[in-house]
Amino acid sequence: MQALPRPVPGRSVSHGLFYQAHYQRALQRCEDGVLSRIGLRMPSKSQSTSLGSEDAFMREVLKRYFGDFLPENTSLETTLSIFSKQTVEPGSVLWRAGEPCSYCVCVTEGTLHAMQPSRTAGKADRLACIAGPGDFSGFLAMLNHFPYEHTVLVPEEAEDDEGACQMLVLQKNKYQALLLSDPPFAQALLRGFLRQISYECRELSRLANE
């Protein structure tokens, strides 16, 4: 085993065993695993499930989020119609932290990484969240008229050879138009997003207390 470095003068904590680079990488992988399990993850449509086609998977995702709140005269088909489909290649950045929010996305295949910018010059951004199939990203900024908090991108090295990320896109201006043209429908979307936030906050609280 590599000898541990001697304590650095003037520092209260020496660079010991768990400061070695390979341990830091292992800890990062553990943290990534926790982040990827927060919320209620849907199975990938490429996995062996009873959901069938891509459209069936998308309808199931939307039903999970909004089905309990949709007005009686609003179908899942109508809900799906307000989203557009998009495929983003590995390495692509959807938005950067601090940019005005113009849309949110729901992953239907692949992975997105949300990166927290470092406040220290020269330090790399830190992974804050992993979004997989069935997860939304960017909706909190859209609902609150805030800039994006994180930089969201498709990772270069996708797990399990996922490659490109497929997603549903909801434009902010389309949601704002719904607030005027169909308030009950827009409110159903809002309630679905708020419920998901409560699930995630509850899960984070549980993890913090373990």
Please name the defining characteristics of this protein.
about 210 residues; alpha+beta; about 35% helix; 4-stranded antiparallel β-sheet; Jelly Rolls; disordered N terminus
Summarize the helices and strands and which ones pair or pack:
Blueprint (H helix, E strand, L loop, with lengths): L20 H15 L18 H13 L9 H6 L2 E5 L4 E3 L7 E7 L2 E5 L9 E6 L4 E2 L1 H6 L6 E3 L11 E7 H10 L1 H27 L1
Antiparallel strand pairs: 1-8, 2-7, 3-6, 3-8, 4-5, 4-7
Helix pairs in contact: 5-6
Helical segment tally? Answer: 6
**Unreliably modeled segments:** 1-5, 11-19, 35-40, 42-51
Sheet with most strands: 4 strands, antiparallel
**Number of beta-strand segments:** 8
Helix content: 25-40%
- Mean pLDDT metric: 79
Count of separate structural domains: 1
Beta content comes to 15-25%
CATH topology name, in short, is Jelly Rolls
Distance between the termini: 32 Å
CATH class placement:
Mainly Beta
Short description:
By secondary structure, this protein is α+β, with helices and mostly antiparallel strands. Helices cover 37% and strands 18% of the residues.
Descriptive report:
Helix 5 (172-181) packs across helix 6 (183-209). With 210 residues, this protein is of the alpha+beta class. It is built from six helices and eight strands, in the order H-H-H-E-E-E-E-E-E-H-E-E-H-H. 37% of the residues lie in helices and 18% in strands. It has a four-stranded antiparallel sheet. A four-stranded antiparallel sheet has the order 2-7-4-5, with no helix packed on it. The protein starts with 20 loop residues before the first helix and ends with a helix. The protein has one domain (41-209): Jelly Rolls (Sandwich), CATH 2.60.120.10.
